[in-house]
Amino acid sequence: MTDNTFTTLGEAIASIASITDAIEAGGAVTDARTEYDLDAIADELITEHADETPEGATIASSLHFAIDADEDTFWATVEAHELTGPITAELTNLDTPAVIDGRKTTTDTITITRDGIELDAIDVESSEDEATYNAAVRSIIGTDQPFTWIR
Predict the structure, then answer these.
(1) 150 CA to centre of own chain
(2) What is the dihedral angle through the alpha carbons of 144, 146, 150, 151, rounded to the nearest 10 degrees?
(3) What residues does each domain of the chain span?
(4) Average pLDDT over residues 25-46
């Protein structure tokens, strides 16, 4: 990854996110999003560049973002932001009124985290059946990842 230049921050972040394909291509990781802190990788590798006027003001038309890391630096950064802690799931919002398939019901929000990083949040129709909630978590993290409920 040598001097990749982007006109917007969104394009630069998208290029970092696309690395999940490369990480997952090796087969050892099936969901890079649950294994690495992609936001921290982007924060560390994406730099802002712009030309300035003689007075020190930024010339807006010259503003761009770049990833100036070589391949070794890039992969070292990825490795440094590996999430290694346990995956946890927690009910963070209960009985939110909702309409599903034309009927009034309620939903509960499950927030899934690892190493203090929110991986995802998913709304599930409220239920007394714990299997419904476990299946929702599995739909995000896969069947091979262990997780613990925070009660």
Answers:
(1) 21
(2) 80
(3) 4-80, 87-150
(4) 80
